[in-house]
Amino acid sequence: MQSLAALSRTTIPAGGIHKSIPPRISVVIPLYNEEESIPALYERLTAALEEYGATFEIIIVDDGSSDGSFALLAEIGTRDPRYRIIKLRRNFGQTAAFSAGFDHASGDVIITMDADLQNDPKDIPLLMEKVNEGYDIVSGWRKDRQDRFLDRKLPSMIANRMISNVTDVRLHDYGCSLKAYRRDVLQHVHLYGELHRFIPALASQVGGSVTEVAVDHHARQYGTSKYGIGRTVRVVLDLITVWFLGSYATRPIQVFGSLGLISSAAGVLVGLYLTGLKLFNHQDIGSRPLLLLAVLLVVIGVQLITMGLLGEMITRTYFESQNKPIYYVREVVNGENTSA
Ligand code: UDP
Ligand code: MG
What we know:
This protein is α/β, with parallel strands linked by helices.
């Protein structure tokens, strides 16, 4: 008989229970002023999915385009019922467009890609292969990226390194839109701001397994990119948010409290040193910059600790007001998964 220890060593692929059901695919595409790309997108995407053979739906989210995109999309939607078109009231940004698409998607597997055909729909089977192996998130890796070096590839290389180090999800390319997700993992991921490039990291924080596959990348054929170099700064700020929420959202006092204690302790030490000088050496300390530093460190320390305590209260409000669990269950043997 197999011992318990041996059993625990056999790795059961994540989400393996879904394997027997053929996944129904939802492709989610955010689209903002891409009218020239739409005919080719329709043709190539439909052909690739038909060839793959699984049942599918395509959700295109028109993120408040001001050109003729929506008219073209609406026409496709009336002709082909597999296409669902969602028009947002204004330009909310790519992350919000993804989020709208996810909310309307009903497939077991959700595949995201850009509308500009820089990603190749022909790579969808590659992603699906990994999903069928049991991974919850499969991220495309633009191994041979066809964009300018200085303002696109270089910042992206630096950002990828940083994200990889900070989030512990080791991918080469976070910015690639071509990704596949299992729906049951994605439903726990809530998107804000420009966090779409962190979806793998966020999904892994709720316990999803992540992998990547190399995919093709083409130069933009039509239209222009919607982003400039300013994106890099925003990515760094978002990274801080993701790191904090992932590691310390349920225990903010540990971040702020530690910093506060270090700061206060340093302030007290400096203060003691100055007191010693005053008492034993009879030196005048009133005009010393060091005194200012001591006071500053103590005040900042107290403030940081207070911030941590406020954070603890906010955390409780966040989780308890919505009955949110602080854990995520993958599956339950003999019972129902109440957190799904
Ligand atoms: N996009 C969007 N809303 C925006 C900006 C972009 O829906 O506010 C879409 C855009 O139409 C494209 C995708 O997001 O399908 C990626 O944008 P882009 O190709 O400009 O980014 P890049 O590939 O240059 O990083
Ligand atoms: Mg693009």
